[in-house]
């Protein structure tokens, strides 16, 4: 007679970051390399039947219907009152949606969301509830007075306990809930302290369930790590509907919101803001921030058009070439990709016959803008050549094109849209790659197939 196997099933261990399962506990996940993220999971139950256990069917909460019969009017996006934010969200806040806004400390997340809550309270019959776990109610009130965000239907709560937050929701019945921040909230049903992986996941799951059940849009403020990623478990970004990154240099007033994930619209949109002493203001036309104010042209400057998301923006690239007294000349870069700049300098010297080996080269952008796309290669090359020859480019010239290692000038995407933006701002001449398709009629285009032709066109423009 065969003996019955009564040995208990072995426990499983799973990574809280990526969900990878291992047979035993490890200090570091072998899949995502996260430290301290592996925890023990309950052992899987097995039924006496051979193979996996069977789950009995239950009654559905609502019957399934053909997709064409599903009502969508209740899920239409509502404007938040901040047009630049609505651009990134895809039209506004969808009822029941959960939005995660992440950014570095001091970039202006709380100021922006306080303005969103104020605009919602002013334009809607439903109140807005702003819950802060990082500041006292008095501190938020002081900032609201400074930025002009006071309103009778804007409710404020200073809580770090999730059950107290849900109690505020029951009492106020808001049309919009803002939680600042998810890392400061603590659920009594989860282990660990605030900001831990277990707590962040539990708080997000509870707030998401509340948002879906009541149809209330929820905006969560999230912290970021030193490498710029969202702090907490990776599953946090999967739980929410929209993930936005709020970016900005503390030495500049420019702020940008980038869509990383969006279930209700495009995930490549960008919203531009200016952070001022009296609050934050949207910039529907931010190109002026990235162009220097000067009455006369200066050698070493070139204007190009970059695309942030779907928005073309004019950017100015500046270069300074000076004789060097060092054995190894200096190469300083600000706002540009240093590896890309080094490549362009090498191509310029080898293919364009511009001698730079005995000179210090400094390159930068204007207005704190970061330019990384290859469409600015030709503008960078001509700015350096202009600085070396001490010849200024025409003030109405825009330069577009990617430069290859052989010195060829390659096509860039969306050239017509870029030139249309440049023409709108008064630029009437352009250097572009060959075979670029339709271009606006109010811009005179000169096609340059390689870097040598671009440098020759630069000399012709300087003489003209």
Automatic annotation (TrEMBL):
Signal peptide range equals none
* Record PROSITE patterns: RECA_2 (PS50162)
* Amino-acid positions noted as binding ATP in the UniProt annotation, renumbered to this chain: 103-110
Q: Where is the RecA family profile domain?
A: 74-224
Keywords noted in UniProt: ATP-binding, DNA damage, DNA repair, DNA-binding, Hydrolase, Metal-binding, Nucleotide-binding, Stress response, Zinc, Zinc-finger
- Motif RadA KNRFG motif — list its residue ranges: 261-265
Region Lon-protease-like, residue ranges = 360-464
| Domain-related comment | The middle region has homology to RecA with ATPase motifs including the RadA KNRFG motif, while the C-terminus is homologous to Lon protease.
NCBIfam families annotated for this entry?
Answer: sms (TIGR00416)
Q: Which family does it belong to?
A: Belongs to the RecA family. RadA subfamily.
Q: What is this protein called?
A: DNA repair protein RadA
């Amino acid at each position: 007679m065969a003996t019955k196997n009564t040995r208990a099933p072995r426990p499983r261990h799973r990574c809280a970051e990526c969900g990878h399962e291992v047979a035993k506990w490890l200090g570091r996940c072998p899949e995502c390399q996260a430290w301290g993220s592996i925890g023990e999971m309950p052992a899987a139950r097995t039924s006496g039947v051979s193979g996996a256990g069977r789950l009995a069917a239950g009654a559905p909460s609502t019957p399934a219907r053909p997709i064409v019969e599903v009502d969508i009017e209740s899920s239409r996006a509502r404007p938040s009152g901040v047009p630049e934010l609505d651009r990134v969200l895809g039209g506004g806040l969808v009822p029941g949606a959960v939005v995660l806004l992440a950014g570095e400390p001091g970039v202006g997340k709380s100021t922006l969301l306080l303005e969103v809550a104020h605009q919602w309270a002013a334009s809607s019959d439903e109140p807005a509830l702003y819950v802060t776990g990082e500041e006292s109610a008095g501190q938020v009130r002081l900032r609201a007075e400074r930025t002009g965000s006071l309103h009778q239907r804007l409710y404020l709560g200073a809580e770090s306990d999730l059950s107290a937050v849900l109690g505020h929701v029951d009492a106020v019945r808001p049309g919009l809930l803002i939680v600042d921040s998810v890392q400061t909230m603590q659920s009594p049903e989860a282990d660990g302290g605030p900001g831990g992986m277990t707590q962040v996941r539990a708080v997000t799951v509870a707030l998401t369930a509340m948002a879906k059940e009541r149809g209330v849009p929820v905006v969560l403020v999230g912290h970021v790590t030193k490498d710029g990623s969202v702090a907490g478990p990776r599953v946090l970004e999967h739980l929410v509907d929209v993930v936005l990154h709020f970016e900005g240099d503390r030495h500049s007033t420019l702020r940008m919101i980038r869509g990383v994930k969006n279930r209700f619209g495009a995930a490549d949109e960008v919203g531009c803001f200016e952070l001022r002493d009296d609050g934050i203001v949207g910039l529907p036309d931010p190109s002026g921030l990235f162009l220097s104010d000067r009455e006369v042209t200066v050698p070493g400057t070139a204007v190009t058009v970059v695309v942030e998301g779907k928005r073309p923006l004019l950017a100015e690239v500046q270069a300074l070439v000076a004789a060097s007294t060092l054995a190894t000349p200096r190469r300083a870069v600000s706002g540009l990709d240093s590896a890309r700049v080094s490549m362009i300098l090498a191509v310029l010297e080898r293919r364009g016959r511009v001698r730079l080996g005995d000179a210090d080269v400094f390159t930068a952008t204007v207005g704190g803008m970061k330019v990384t796309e290859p469409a600015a290669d030709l503008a960078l090359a001509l700015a350096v050549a202009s600085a070396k020859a001490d010849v200024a480019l025409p003030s109405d010239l825009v330069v577009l094109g990617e430069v290859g290692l052989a010195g060829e000038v390659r096509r860039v995407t969306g050239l017509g849209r870029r030139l249309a933006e440049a023409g709108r701002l008064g630029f009437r001449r352009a250097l572009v790659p060959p075979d670029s398709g339709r271009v606006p009629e109010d811009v005179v285009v000169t096609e340059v197939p390689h870097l040598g032709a671009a440098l020759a066109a630069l000399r012709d423009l300087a003489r003209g």
